[in-house]
Structure prediction request, 596 residues.
Amino acid sequence: MPLSREEVEHVASLARLGLTTEELSLMQDQLSSILGHIAVIDQVDTAMISPTAQVGSVSLLLRADVVTASLPRDAVLANAPRQQDGFIEVSAILDVVNEETDS
Amino acid sequence: MVDQNGQKSPVASGYEAVIGLEVHAQLLTQSKMFCGCSARYADAAPNTLVCVVCGGFPGALPVLNQAAVEAAIVTGLALNCDIPRFSKLDRKNYFYPDLPKGYQISQYDMPLAVDGHLEFASGGQTRRARITRVHVEEDTGRLVHRTEANGSRVSLIDLNRSGVPLMEIVGEPDLRSPEEARDYLTALRQILRYIGVSTGNMEEGAFRCDANVSVRERGGPLGAKVEVKNMNSFRAVERALRFEQERQTEALQTGQRIEQETRGWIEDRGVTMSQRTKEQAHDYRYFPEPDLPPLIVSEETVSGLTSRLPEMPAQRRARFAQQYGLAESESMQLTAERTVADFFETVAQSDGVDRPSSAANWIVNDLTGLQRSRGLAPDRLPLSARQLQDLLDALEQSRVTVRAAKELLPQIREGEAVMMAAARLNLLVLDAAGEIRDAVVATIAAFPAAVADYQGGKHAAIGRLIGETMRRTDGRADPEEVRRVLEEELIRG
Prediction:
């Protein structure tokens, strides 16, 4: 099941990966090979097997709705590339931004 | 399912809108969805309610909040949904600076509640719209966009909102007009407030609505679906949908094709604008959340939550009209907020008296007026039930006049006994035997002409004397009592 060049480029852009031409070719081959392997597994007749989302048999344990301490802000911001007034600062993410607007 | 209710936009005759709404409501939990950070972020300084889980630090593991799950199930039950025994959480993958993990934990194909419906009043009729599903997910952080002194633009991230529990309520495209959409939203918000799962406050972002709108020739095949976002009030929803309905109708009438796209509502300009296409649904690459096992919802959980459901607004409205003999409009007003409905029922049957109509009158006419003038929220009344009960008692026992009660009402202080307030303001009815008689005698002495008229057979002259006596008692006397004492004195005189 070969993947097209466009599909690989699309997946790379979704993952925010900037791939060189060589890397794109490499990924196209490798991803196609992985999908080919899955296609083989897909031939197994699973009609009698109930679908599963998880391999563990544990049901989800829930947490009581109780507030616990948060991290000190310095710790939260310690790895931020830039900060400003207690916020994490990043490059503007919209083409048109309004001053001090919320989103 | 839902018929056209006869309201036609000027351009829309022959065409109809097909509208489905998606509502995101913040759940009123104490802590966040997957960690113990406080979910009450409104007044917190930026990034002070953040831990390794909601901050998206590598390796941190989520633990689901039971209250959030229960709130979504209760909502599903209130919306007549089925609650599947088996549910799971999924990852929705996309990159955005307000999403620190690079994915949102949501629910894809096995939500907590499915296949319900909501009945609501619209255009004088009861409508029904189907509910597709109710699922839980986590909120994102908040972005503030700022232009620096040097002109460069930055975005600032506050993660306090990151991980706050949200519930998404997806409705089927059963709505046929902007008015119907507004009425549906109003009814939905009312239910969420009744069951106490959300404030439903749109302006504060606790209740958000996106709409799918298409226009078709009446009865014809569905048109291309346009998603409308960024509507921040009930009025904005109605305006945006009307704009979109008219835009699409005009396009169809002039033979244009409607693009399937996402459009944002621009409030100050009153238009929707095309937004750059975000990633398509299949690009979110949903997959089962590996950090959270599936959720088994037991029969006991569901029956326990069912028993906690309060009477719903529509049922309560019908019961009020029937049980208390209230007018439709009064029942509507009294049941709009659960606290007001509870308040009414407390006062309607209190102190051994059945007085629903006076209780309803005072709440609908006087308390809500005072509530508005004081800028109180619709669920906050300016008096306690005890205070209104005491006021009604005082009226029934003729200890205050209706006029004095109306004057007294806005001056009763919080927690103050009504009779104390009446005494403080000198609004208690005078004792008939004492002060009233003194005032009557003084009036008779001061207005011999009117007295002579009365005694000469012009009985209407007593009106003047009653008025004068009332003035002498600063309006505190019961006018009927004044008349009685005057008549006694005039006959005697």
